[in-house]
Amino acid sequence: MAAGFVDFEITWQADVFSGAPQASSAAEFGTQGINFRARKAANEQEWHAALASLACEIPVRPTALQGTDALSDAGDTGESEP
Amino acid sequence: MNDSLSTEPSLDLGRLRQAIQEEYAAVARDPGRGYHFHTGRPLVSLLGYQDDWLEGLPEGSIASFAGTGNPFRIGHLRPGERVVDIGSGAGMDSLIAAKMVGPDGQVIGVDMTRAMLETARKSTRETRAGHVEFREGLAESLPVPDSWADVVISNGVLNLLPDKLAALREMARVLKPTGRLQIGDILVQQAVPADAKQQIDLWTG
Fold first, then answer.
1. A40, A43, A47, A48: best to mutate for the B interface, most B CBs within 10 A
2. For B136, how many CA atoms within 13 A lie in the half-sphere containing its CB?
3. Å between B168 CA and nearest CA of chain A
4. How large is the average pLDDT for residues B184-205?
């Protein structure tokens, strides 16, 4: 989605390094060859709409409701400690 | 924007580019030497290039091919389209693109490695394809006008660029609105440690 592109899709992936004449670090990192496509947004409006559709924010709650530790761990209920 | 696409802060970009140029100049001059990646006809077969796409292409461009994917499996290019091939190497993908878009289309291949450009230009003369040209340049500052291209292709190049966001912005700049990206590249399924990203030999091998 970077730089004004939309409709990103990886269409294919496979191991393309196994059996190469020289050893490489490819296997160490699980490296695979891929094909991907994307499309430049038609205009700013389409780009911003695509960005907005990616939003994954959690609902904002007042810090006071999150107890003493506002930087709570995932899964924290946000309830104050007794 | 995604910070993971930004430049690695302490990586010596000049040294990295030099190492990449040396590696791929060797591939251009001695494609059969044996590298840490596949090259040439075996790779073309592995990646699913169709025989009719390769028909009439000079063997020098095929032998020095070193891609990691196949932009044409994503979709055929249409007659009359304008195409930019980023990191065009020995020119194989550019020449296939030139066949697909035909004489009413245009193809510009861009590469920073002179030995690869020499091979690509030699092949272009042999095929007498007047609608494809190769320009020396960088992916992060393409020698191509704004909104010129219908399609940007690239194959095994984006992973070699520390500043991927700059390269993607350049791709967007040269594409017309609704223009297509058809890219072959790599992904890693294990996180690469920060210190490993500073090792230039890991970028090239």
1. A40
2. 9
3. 6
4. 83
Total-model pTM: 0.85
CB atoms under 10 Å from CB of B143, counted, come to 12
pLDDT in tens, B120-162: 999 999 999 999 999 999 999 999 999 999 999 999 999 999 8
**Domains (ranges, CATH) in chain B?**
10-204 (3.40.50.150)
Domain tally, chain A:
1
A29 touches chain B (CB under 8 A): yes
Taking any CB pair shorter than 8 Å as contact, residues of chain B touching chain A are: 1-2, 5, 34-38, 43, 46-47, 68-71, 73-75, 156, 164-165, 168-169, 171-172, 175-190, 192, 202, 205
Q: How many CB atoms lie within 10 A of CB B175?
A: 26
| pLDDT, position A59 | 53
SS3 B57: coil
**A23 in a structural domain:** no
